[in-house]
Design a protein that fits this description.
- By secondary structure, this protein is of the alpha+beta class.
- It has one domain: Imidazole glycerol phosphate dehydratase, domain 1 (Ribosomal Protein S5, domain 2).
- Helices cover 40% and strands 18% of the residues.
- The protein has a four-stranded mixed β-sheet.
- A hairpin with a 2-residue loop joins strand 1 and strand 2.
- The longest helix has 19 residues, at 30-48.
- The radius of gyration is 16 Å and the shape is globular.
- It starts with a helix and ends in a 19-residue tail after the last helix.
Length: 162
């Protein structure tokens, strides 16, 4: 399931992601999910750099059957998240549902961006989780796209993101 969610992030965010993870799965998925979020967050932070010319703020509302999820990002340099995605334990394979929230929180913190995710509707945990990653991907894509009128300026009144 975790691979499936990361595939949504790559596909809908138009992001080239090639991850190979080895870890102590026998004790659970926590370390693999957390370490993947840390590495991805650092990679995004490095790629964004000073944030010159990015749109900075992005949002997406994504449906998947009965599920509907809103994600909003401010690539401000401040990693903070508010995740309102109630998930039960079914339909996620071996992936514990609390690790979806933990991935999002860790990715946001390590990537240094503000993230709000809210599941607005949904009953099927698989559909909700997949819509979360699709909306996250599309919000990232919007926030990190070039803002042509901005040129190479930093999108902040402070002149710096961070």
């Amino acid at each position: 399931m975790f691979n499936h969610l990361l595939a949504q992030l790559a596909r809908h965010g138009l992001i080239d992601i090639d991850i190979e993870v080895q870890g102590d799965v026998e004790v659970g998925w926590h370390h693999i999910v957390e370490d993947t979020a840390i590495v991805l967050g650092h990679a995004f932070k490095e790629a964004v750099g000073e944030g010159r010319g990015i749109t900075r703020v992005g949002n997406a509302i994504v449906p998947l059957d009965e599920a509907l999820v809103l994600s909003v990002i401010d690539y401000s340099g401040r990693g903070y998240s508010v995740i309102d995605v109630p998930l039960g334990q079914s339909d996620l394979g071996e992936l514990p549902s609390d690790l979806v929230r933990h991935f999002l929180e860790t990715f946001s913190r390590e990537g240094c961006f503000n993230l709000h995710v809210k599941a607005m509707a949904g009953m099927n945990n698989h559909h909700i989780a997949e819509a979360v990653f699709k909306s996250l991907a599309r919000a990232l894509r919007m926030a990190l796209s070039r803002d042509e009128p901005l040129g190479q300026e930093v999108p902040s009144t402070k002149g710096v993101i961070g």
